[in-house]
Amino acid sequence: MKKTNIIIFLLATLMSSCSVDAPKSYSKSSDAAPIQPDCYIGTTIPCNILPMNFSVDANKDFIVKVSGGKTEISVDSDNGDVCFPIDKWKALLSENAGNDITFEVYEKTNNGYTLYSPFTMTVSKDSIDEYVTYRMIEPSYQASGEMSVNQYNLSTGEESIIASDHYTHSQPGYRTQRCVNCHFVQRHNSQNRSFYYRGEKGGMILSYNGTVRKIDTKTGDMPFSTSITSWHPTLPLIAFSMDNFKQSFHSSITNKIETFNLHGDLVLYDIEKNEVTNIIRTDDRFESFPEWAPDGKHLYFVCTDDDKNKLPFDSVKYDILRIAFDADTRSWGKIDTVYSATKLDSSATIPKISPDGKFLAITRAEYGMQVPTEHSADVCLINLATSEFLPLKNVNSPRCDSYHSWSTNSRWLLIASKREDGSYARNYITHIDENGNATKPFRMPRLNPRHDADLLKSYNVPEFAQTPAPFTTAEYMEVVAKQDAEKAKFGSPMKQKVDGKSGASRLR
Predict the structure, then answer these.
(1) In whole angstroms, what is the distance from residue 315 CA to residue 320 CA?
(2) Closest Cα partner for 226 from 188, 269, 180, 280?
């Protein structure tokens, strides 16, 4: 969406629900308020979130009052939309941080007004990061249609495109396809950011210290290019997995597609040296999904428990491991098992550590590591001090709950969930307290409350960020279109047999 369109839509939204007085006379109903999304009822929200606008029956007239402390806002519905003025909403949240705000939904009938059972939202004192970045992708799965990496402002509702694959081929009506993915930042700071633009003129698009470059990270005798990404929290280092992902479609089970990996190793990219070196190389196991610990002293990753090359896809299961890292010598050390899901006949993937270092968030499923369509996928926590497993039963749904990201203050967890229809992933947010207790998740709010219901794309790999992307779409795409990729150097040939402390570890 162009910025001018955003401003027009914002102004239209602010005017769509008019301020009115709540009814003085009404009858009461014990029924729950008929709002969508109903996940807003009884949830906990950040003190700096944009208005939690919702929709009601467009064929009926409603008045909604939200109140807390000395502040109250009353608006009427407009074509089924209930939208609260941003300035008044922010004042309401500011006054009620740490307390509940109450919503009263009145329906106009032939006999006057009916008040549904009021509901509350708890306004947490914990703020949330201002931005969320994600890939927008059509659920075709086979690199067709238009993809983009977007950023969304959680305090204003403004959305913009960072990069898009939308290019028109020279033949009329024919469009070539590129893939835009693997978008990550360093410690929630978007100034240091990387994402991939794959296909013709492709490479890793790297913005670092005020410059943007295109890097070809497939170098030396690497059999595959780099993919899943994790920035070191403080150093100019990026850990990558080398994967060979394949897809197949099901004809008889509820999971629509299977994404599986036929290769998996870990490498390290030094930004300042423009050099790739090995982290882990194994012949009989697959390693992927690297994730740095907040102190940078360990790299977490997923790993198969033994040789899986000859087994069917639904028998491939992963554990969570970690390898020690010495920043002074840039060397690798001991490998430990953090969570052995395979002993429980399940698979663990997508390790994400809270910035305070207390909790490891994972996705646990029946099998595999790429689980965005697997209905068994659930988000869980592991207390890293006690090794206690926390299943987060009130967060997960019967459908796929997979990719997740921590806020900077470790109090909010962002989850890509297909709970609504099993096909389209939507962003959900839950509050995590210092003991790992989670609140009822709510769908990421939009100024237009029907936005996600009408959206024919999925949110993919949602990540929190404190700042916006440092370059415009045009500046990024200029690099994509006109800049040749710099070839990275290769610092440790894979064929060399070395131990874990010399740069290319081998699991046995």
Answers:
(1) 17
(2) 269
The string of DSSP letters for 23-50 reads PSS-EEEEEEP--BSGGGTT-EE-TTPP
Q: What 3-state class would DSSP assign to 12? A: helix
What is the C-alpha to C-alpha distance for residues 16 and 40, in angstroms, rounded to an integer? 21
pLDDT in tens, the chain (508 residues): 444 444 434 444 444 567 899 999 999 999 999 999 999 999 999 999 999 999 999 999 999 999 999 999 999 999 999 999 999 999 999 999 999 999 999 999 999 999 999 999 999 999 999 999 999 988 755 555 678 999 999 999 999 999 987 654 445 555 555 678 888 899 888 889 999 888 777 899 999 999 999 999 998 888 888 888 999 999 999 999 987 665 666 565 666 666 666 677 999 999 999 999 999 988 778 899 999 999 999 999 999 876 555 455 667 899 999 999 999 999 999 999 999 999 999 999 999 999 999 999 999 999 887 777 778 899 999 999 999 999 999 999 999 999 999 999 999 999 999 999 988 999 999 999 999 999 999 999 999 999 999 999 999 999 999 999 999 999 998 998 889 999 999 986 544 444 333 344 444 3
Q: Helix, strand or coil for residue 397?
A: coil
**Cα separations in angstroms, 65 against 45, 49, 373, 454:** 18, 18, 39, 26
Domains of the chain: 3-123 (2.60.40), 131-487 (2.120.10.30)
Residue 205 burial by Cβ neighbours in a 10 Å radius (0-12, 13-18, 19+): buried
